[in-house]
Each structure stands twice: as structure tokens, then as C-alpha cells.
Amino acid sequence: MKINIESDFQPLGNPKSESASAQVGIIEEGEVAPGDRIQQVEQAGHDWTVARTFKLLIGGGNKKADAFAQLQVLAQLEALAESWRIRAAKLAAQL
Predict the structure, then answer these.
(1) H or E stretch at 87
(2) Average pLDDT over residues 18-32
(3) 3-class DSSP assignment, residue 56
(4) Spatial contact of 42 and 83, defined as CB atoms under 8 Å apart
(5) 85 near 93, Cβ under 8 Å?
(6) Contact present, 62 and 53 (Cβ < 8 Å)
(7) pLDDT above 70: residue 54
(8) Could you identify which of 20, 38, 76, 89 might form a hypothetical disulfide with 54, taking C-beta atoms 3.0 to 4.6 angstroms apart as the criterion?
(9) Alpha-carbon span 89 to 68, nearest angstrom
(10) Distance between CA atoms of 48 and 61, rounded to whole angstroms?
């Protein structure tokens, strides 16, 4: 089975817990069973993790001293869904 991990990230749960979930889409049907190996086959060309992005955009990280520069970077990050880039730009504009 192949999973479309480039789907728009939709955070769920409590932002203060610094944890997030993402919805993914199936792009190729197949069987998956407990214990099956999942292998990363590609590495992003940036150092933004889901946790770091989530903390900055949702978890209050935008209030820290270095947030403006980080939000500007996220607003231009093509790997990020457009709606999240817009959110980053709006948060940066408020600083």
C-alpha cells in the first residue's frame, strides 16, 4: 500500500500537548498488517518537522522572539500546504 503523505495537514487534538495527527489518502490499494515495515524513501529538503511547524502555527510558538523570521520561512515553503503558508504569512504580519 502507498500512502499519499503530501495531503493537506489537518491538526487534530490539543495544541498545548505539542502532538498532532495528519489525515492521509490511499493512492494504491494493498494489504497492511501489524508488524509490516514502513520505510522512508524520500527526505524533505528542509528541516521543518510536523511538531515544529505545529508548535509555531498552532501551539503559541508565534509569540516567541524569533517567530517572525521562522514564519517568513514557512510562508515561502512550497512543501507546506497553501492554507498553512497563508496562516504563516498572516501571523508574521501581526508581529
Answers:
(1) helix 82-93
(2) 62
(3) helix
(4) no
(5) no
(6) no
(7) yes
(8) 20
(9) 9
(10) 14
What is the pTM for the complete model shown? 0.60
Residues whose CB is less than 8 angstroms from the CB of residue 23 and which lie 6 or more positions away in sequence, other chains included: 7, 8, 10
Backbone angles phi, psi at 82, to 5 degrees: -55, -40
Q: Which three cell numbers stand for residue 49?
A: 518537522
Minimal CA–CA distance to 62: which of 23, 19, 15, 21? 15
% of the chain residues with pLDDT over 70: 66
The dihedral of CA 81, 62, 94, 75: what is its sign?
negative
User: Which of 23, 5, 19 lies closest to 59, judged by CA?
Assistant: 19
Domain boundaries, given as residue ranges, for the chain: 2-93
